[in-house]
Structures are given as C-alpha cells and as structure tokens.
Amino acid sequence: MARITLVHFISASLILISCIILLSPYFMTRSSIQTTSLSNGLKEGSHRDPKLIIGILSATGNWKLRDAQRQTWISEMKQDLPLSVEYKFVLDRPTQETIDELDKKGDMVFLNLSSSGYAIKFGEKLYSWFKYVAEHYPETTIVAKMDDDVFLCTKEMIERLNELKHKKLYYGWQHKDIVRIDEMFVVLGIDLVLRISQRKLCSSAQFDCDKSELVETNWGGTSLGRWLSAYDDVVTVADNANIIYYHRGQKPSLDIYKEDNFCQKYLLYHKASVDDMFFLYKTKTQ
Ligand SMILES: *[C@@H]1O[C@H](CO)[C@@H](O)[C@H](O)[C@H]1NC(C)=O
C-alpha cells in the first residue's frame, strides 16, 4: 500500500516537474522582455517595433507646447491601442536647453539641418525625417509627420489609422487645388517613405532639378504632394470631415469650449494652444 502511494507520489512529482520545465520558457520570456525594455530605458508608450511612428516637428522655444502634448494626448499612448506607436519630437538642431530636455524625456531627435526658421525648407525637414525613419524604423507600417500645435484624439485616430494602414497610404486633410495633404498632419505608408528617402533633394530652382530628384518648394505639404505625384500607386485618403484644420490666419470656426467631447466627433484639432490641449484632454477623460 505504502509502495503504491510512493509510486503515485513520485510520478505526480515527475509530472509537476516536467510541467514547470516545459512552461518555464514562457515565464522566462515574459520576465526577460520586461527587464530588457526597462534596461533599454524605453519609456511608457514606446515600442521596439512600432507600426506607427510619429514625428512632431517642433522648435527649440516651443517647450510649453511639447509639455502640453506630453501631458495630454501623448500620455494616452500608454493604453492598449490596436497599433503600437512611437513618437519623437523633431528639432532642427540641439541647443543646451533641448539637450537637457532630451536627457529628461528621451523623446527628441535633432535633424542637424543647416537651415532653420519659419517656412524655410520645410521640404528638407520632411525629407530628413523620412530618411531618419528609413534608417531607424524600416519595419514600421506607417509614418506620421505633424506639428506641435496639433491635438490628437489618440485612441480614435489610432483606430482610424489601424483601419487604413497600408504601405502606400497618403492620409490627412486634403487641399482642393492639387492632390496635397496639409503638412500639419500627414501619414505616409513606409513604402512611400523608403522610396522618397532613396531620392535626392534638389534645392535649386526647379528647372535645374533632375526629374528623379525631389523639388524643394520651401513648403512641406506642396513639396510632398509633388514628390508623390511621380507614383501612380499611392493610396490617398482625405479625411477632412474628421479633422479640424485652419488655414494660416483663419479664425477658429469651431468653438471647442462648447463641445462636450470633441473626440466623439473628430480625430484631430489643429492650431491648439497649451490651454486648448488641456481643455480637450480634460473633457475627454471626464
Ligand atoms: C545630430 O547631432 C547630434 C550630436 O550633435 C547627434 O547626437 C545626433 O544623432 C544627430 N542627429 C542625427 C539625426 O543624425
């Protein structure tokens, strides 16, 4: 009797031990993934293999807008989203202040461009951002470039982009003149980003440019529209109905302070001040 119990005990133990051994890679992988991401210093909301990478064009002095973005819609990237997302603030070149900011926040890229300032070579900035993505994130699916005065309805926009994600996507608020998405928020499929990053930028008068080169119009949106017109397989999606965009100098046509929950109706608010961002965020999370 005692022997049978002993045999039972030994076989039960053996089964238990084999289970532990079999399952241990599962536990080990999970815990080692966590340790790796911690030791890599990755921040919340960032992923080693993002499917959407967002570049937010910003200027050294705009740290208030950057902080407002970090504390509002960027902070919402922590939640479970259908696409893994990574973001970077994209600046022309480092200064002591922005180097300190990068040390603290770890979310900035310096393009080290020769030119800077308003409307100067926006095409070059866009091009440099695409080259950066091609080098560092070639495995991503879609790539966004946006401005630091844009408020995103994080979950809603990412759900929308997850529906649309295509390696030849060209998405945003479309102007009526030519096929041109406004540069305040534009999303491109990685195939288009890789193609553009392999071409050469031509900053001289356009009649001096080779046909294969990218003409710099000084404006990001018009430059990009022309660069993409070389391809006939671009999947353009104009989402004007879901995006609140303002022309330069245009008075706001929508009073966000009268909206109960902006993000139930729209995906994006352009020309957001620091206060606007906190307001939009508050009404969302109430
Ligand atoms: C810009 O220059 C800094 C050093 O001054 C360097 O750390 C950084 O990687 C450069 N950025 C790019 C995109 O190459």
Short description:
This protein is α/β, with parallel strands linked by helices and 286 residues long.
Topology:
Layout: H1 2-39, E1 52-57, H2 63-71, E2 85-91, H3 96-105, E3 108-110, H4 122-136, E4 142-147, E5 151-152, H5 154-164, E6 169-175, E7 180-189, H6 190-198, E8 201-202, E9 214-215, H7 220-228, E10 235-238, E11 243-244, H8 262-265, E12 268-269, H9 274-285
Parallel strand pairs: 1-2, 1-4, 2-3, 6-10, 8-9, 11-12
Antiparallel strand pairs: 4-7, 5-12, 6-7
Helix pairs in contact: 2-9, 4-6, 4-7
The site of 2-acetamido-2-deoxy-beta-D-glucopyranose has 6 residues, from strand 3.
Transmembrane segments: 6-28
GO molecular function: glycosyltransferase activity
Membrane topology: Single-pass type II membrane protein
Structural class: alpha/beta
Q: Per CATH, which architecture? A: Alpha-Beta Complex
What number is the mean pLDDT? Answer: 84
The CATH superfamily label reads: Spore Coat Polysaccharide Biosynthesis Protein SpsA, Chain A
Strand content: 15-25%
Helicity range: 40-55%
Helix/strand order: HEHEHEHEEHEEHEEHEEHEH
Number of domains: 1
Record keyword descriptors for this entry.
Spore Coat Polysaccharide Biosynthesis Protein SpsA, Chain A; binds 2-acetamido-2-deoxy-beta-D-glucopyranose; seven-stranded mixed beta sheet; globular
What do you see in this structure?
- The strands form 3 sheets. A 7-stranded mixed beta sheet has the order 3-2-1-4-7-6-10. Strands 5-12-11 form a 3-stranded mixed beta sheet. A two-stranded parallel ribbon has the order 8-9.
- Helix 2 (63-71) packs parallel to helix 9 and helix 4 crosses helix 7 (220-228).
- With 286 residues, the protein is of the alpha/beta class.
- It is globular, with a radius of gyration of 24 Å.
- It has a single domain (35-285), classed as Alpha-Beta Complex (Spore Coat Polysaccharide Biosynthesis Protein SpsA, Chain A), CATH 3.90.550.
- 41% of the residues lie in helices and 19% in strands.
- Strand 2, helix 3 and strand 3 form a beta-alpha-beta unit.
- Bound molecules: 2-acetamido-2-deoxy-beta-D-glucopyranose (NAG).
- 2-acetamido-2-deoxy-beta-D-glucopyranose binds at residues 94, 109-112, 132.
